[in-house]
Amino acid sequence: MIVLGIETSCDETAAAVVTDAREIRADVVLSQLDDHTPYGGVVPEIAARAHLQHLDGLIRRAMAEAGIGFGDLDAVAATGGPGLIGGVIVGVMTAKAIAAARGLPFVAVNHLEGHALTARLTDDVAFPYLLLLVSGGHCQLLAVEGVGRYRRFGTTIDDAVGEAFDKTAKLLGLGYPGGPLVEKAAARAINPGRFELPRPMLGRPGCDFSFSGLKTAVRRHAEELGGSLSEADRDDLAAAFQSTVAEVLADRCARAIRRFKEDHPQGGALVVSGGVAANKAIRARLSTLADKHRMPFVAPPLRLCTDNAAMIAWAGIERFRLGQSDPLNFAPRPRWPL
Ligand code: KG4
Ligand code: ZN
After folding, report:
1. Which of 33, 170, 276 to mutate to test the pocket of ligand 1 (most atoms within 8 A of CB)?
2. What is the 3-state secondary structure of 254-320?
3. Which portions of this protein are annotated as coiled-coil regions (predicted)?
4. Position 202 confidence tier, pLDDT thresholds 50, 70, 90
5. 233: pLDDT confidence band, cut at 50, 70 and 90?
6. Nearest ligand (C-alpha, residue 163)
7. CATH homologous superfamily for the domain 2-116+304-320
8. Which of 54, 124, 168, 251 has the most neighbouring CB atoms within 10 Å?
9. Which residues is 141 bridged to in the sheet?
10. Are 198 and 179 in contact (CB under 8 A)?
11. DSSP state, residue 279
């Protein structure tokens, strides 16, 4: 089985060709970073227009790299939501057009399901597993019990982790997108233990997250330093922020592991995915936690953690081989909880 995947829900235009033998035959991603950087964040209208401009060419490139024609495909999958609706419409309409023209099945993929199932494309991960999904818009702990079978243990009560990284980067004057820039600054820190930040929700019952207080604490430290931060201040604050986030994520995961093991005494892996899973300090902290609980730890390669179309093609394969597909009147969904 060979499937074309399309991703257009945020600021990456992406197309990929993947087989049910877990082979990524092509995986092209075009970042719109330069289009949005002047505005310090993603502008939905600009994103939608850029998807429209580039998607056809990217699909052609992916098909050429895979060495196949549309007639060789078994299905077309596209992100059907959640996300910026203008972009989602571009991806869904393009996928439907290919499906209609070639008489192929169309699969509308939940973007979060794409992140959730990536580990089964890159590694031999069986259901059930415990998933920490951390991206720009989401922060959730889920038991993944099967395709379409997700049980949520916790979510954020304010900001998503990626959002907290992006906002902290902005207030430290590091720029956009924040995650990778905070990580780089933290790696440069000379005195990473200099600032003590509050650890929101640490030790509290349940598996929910909160990050807005942390961001406020970083702002307060920055103000106390007189507003204009030296590079050393900035790097030390970035390091404090990153290690606190890692600590909070590990604490929440430890609680979720207990619940997961009650429901699934046979065990399962701890999987982390989504854009923030590209962070090496966070991966390392979670890997230590998994070791402690004798769980295999799985984190997809960095380029498959951030938004891409291979994960959409793969989620399409997982659904299609269970006999699931969607009608051509599927309506794109700005909101679509897992
Ligand atoms: O999954 P993703 O590419 O898009 C969404 O679905 O949201 O995640 C993007 C988010 C951004 O907030 C970005 O700052 C964050 O992931 N991110 C990182 C890193 N790389 C990307 N956060 C921390 N460390 C990183 N290295
Ligand atoms: Zn994403």
Report:
1. 276
2. HHHHHHHHHHCCCCCCEEEECHHHHCHHHHHHHHHHHHHCCCCEECCCHHHHCCCCHHHHHHHHHHH
3. none
4. confident
5. very high
6. 1
7. ATPase, nucleotide binding domain (3.30.420.40)
8. 168
9. 132, 154
10. no
11. -
Q: How confident is the model at residue 201 (pLDDT cuts 50, 70, 90)?
A: confident
Every domain of the chain and the residues it spans = 2-116+304-320, 126-299
pTM above 0.90, yes or no: yes
The dihedral region occupied by 175, where left means phi > 0, alpha psi between -120 and 50, and beta the remainder, is left
Question: Distance of CA 281 to CAs 105, 118, 239, Å?
Answer: 41, 20, 10
**126-299 sits in which CATH class?**
alpha beta
Residue holding tokens 């991206």? Answer: 135
Mutate which of 37, 132, 165 for ligand 1 pocket (most atoms within 8 A of beta carbon): 165
* Cβ within 8 Å of residue 208, ≥6 positions away: 154, 155, 156, 157, 201, 252
